Amino acid sequence: MENQRIPPHDLSAEEALLGAVIIDGTQIDNVSPIVKANDFYHEPYSFIFKAYEELYKFKTLIDEITVSDQLERMGKLEFCGNRSFLVHLKTVCPSPMDSMYYAEIVKRLSIARQLIVVGEQIKQIGYSNPADSAKALGECDEKLLDVRKTGIASPIITPKERAESLYERYNELAQKEMIMALKTELYDLDKLLGGGFYDGDVVIVGARTGVGKTTFLSFLADMIGRYKNVLYCSAEMNSDSLSDREIAQVANVPTNRIRLGAYDEELHGKIMAGIEEISAKKVFIYDDIPMTTDKILQTALTMQLRYGLGAIVIDYLGMLDDDYGRNSYERVGYMSRKIKLIARQLNVPVIIAHQLNRELEKRDDKRPHLFDLRDSGSIEQDADVVLFLYRDSYYNKIPPNQADVTEIIIAKQRQGEANKIVKVRYDKITQQYQSLVSREENLL
């Protein structure tokens, strides 16, 4: 009965993958490292993908005409359903941008079928009652290793591969400074951070309630969003609330004036201009609750595949709804580790806000320190950069000309100096941060 079972496969996924490539030939760049022709269960589909591979090898455009011609030369056009079937493939693909999802399904099922074959071979080795157990185990290992070689790409970087990568990286840096970092446009902060935020880093932004964490995160998203796609995840505010703030910044009025309505002609014009600015930015809003690290990962992965992804901004860690552990300390530690894995897996910086303990309010000097991070053990360990916001006017009466100064304290930096302070200007009405020095004064 077991031999009559049909091997695992998904013809819909195979058709969708073939359709994605024939709709958009550039998708072959994304899927060819994942699947090969022999990963397809249906033999005609295997030949069609083989035709794709041949065209790709010679840098030839992939469409139904070129694929049809290639299949004709291979003697397989009729076997694969002629050109009419190639046209049909274009109708069964939901979206060519999801080609990597289809490729992963095809690859996973291919590996499953290979394991079934290898399992049968290993079973036969066992039934043969081998005299040399060590040799028999070696044969079994070799068969499994063959499957592994065709499966998941190896995470091991050889010395040669590493040297080639470094050669390219440092040659780029030799030509242009800060090419690897996402700049905040706060020039002295960028300088101390070695250019800005780097791929794979977790950046914690900490401050007491009311000092401006959300505003600072929104500012960073806007700065990065001028040239890179940013996924902004707010567990505290919905898209409309975030938009009200942005429009208020452009219109140079308080947010509650935007929410009140009944605009005069001048303000309405500024609001329309603000909408144009929002449209031009590359800031994508993730607007869904409850929000968890798993949902953020899936959303970010989808965005990376469909649109490209430069950075993730999360406001804020304590508002995420991951259900884990026996207490807040374990839950926050779990989420912190997940955020670090997201940064590494997607290879983008993740900037996330976090609350500070109330105990600092009892100190004379209320500038935050690392031990002020709420449930701080894992957060401090997982973070590559920790930035604290401090504004003296939040606690003390100070001269009006100093009231708009915010200190950004670099409390931790894995790749540079810590315990450095950058002073920036904060406009409370427009909720914007500005560098106190010009780019020319602080050339990197």
Give the overall average pLDDT. 83
How many discrete domains? 2
State which percent range the strand residues make up.
5-15%
CATH topology of the largest domain: Rossmann fold
Total count of strands: 9
Supply the CATH class of the largest domain. Alpha Beta
In whole angstroms, the N-to-C terminal distance is 71 Å
Number of helices: 17
Radius of gyration, whole Å: 28 Å
The major sheet is characterized as: 9 strands, mixed
Derived from helix and strand composition plus strand pairing, the structural class reads alpha/beta
Q: What is the 3D shape? A: globular
Give the SSE string. HHHHHHHHHEHEHHHEHEHEHEHEEE
Strand arrangement in the largest pleated sheet: 3-2-4-5-1-6-7-8-9
Which stretches of 5+ consecutive residues score pLDDT under 50?
none
- Please bin the fraction of helical residues: 40-55%
CATH architecture of the largest domain: 3-Layer(aba) Sandwich
- What is the CATH superfamily of the largest domain? P-loop containing nucleotide triphosphate hydrolases
Describe the structure concisely for a colleague.
The protein is α/β, with parallel strands linked by helices and about 450 residues long.
What does this structure look like?
The protein is of the alpha/beta class. The chain has helices at 11-23, 28-31, 43-57, 64-74, 82-89, 99-127, 133-150, 159-175, 187-192, 213-224, 239-251, 255-260, 265-280, 293-306, 328-346, 376-382, 392-395; strands at residues 202-207, 230-234, 283-286, 311-315, 350-355, 385-390, 405-413, 420-427, 432-435. It has two domains: 2-150, DNAb Helicase, Chain A; 187-435, Rossmann fold (3-Layer(aba) Sandwich), CATH 3.40.50.300. The chain contains 17 helices and nine strands. The protein has a nine-stranded mixed β-sheet with strand order 3-2-4-5-1-6-7-8-9, sandwiched between helices. The N and C termini lie far apart (71 Å). The model has no long low-confidence stretch (mean pLDDT 83).
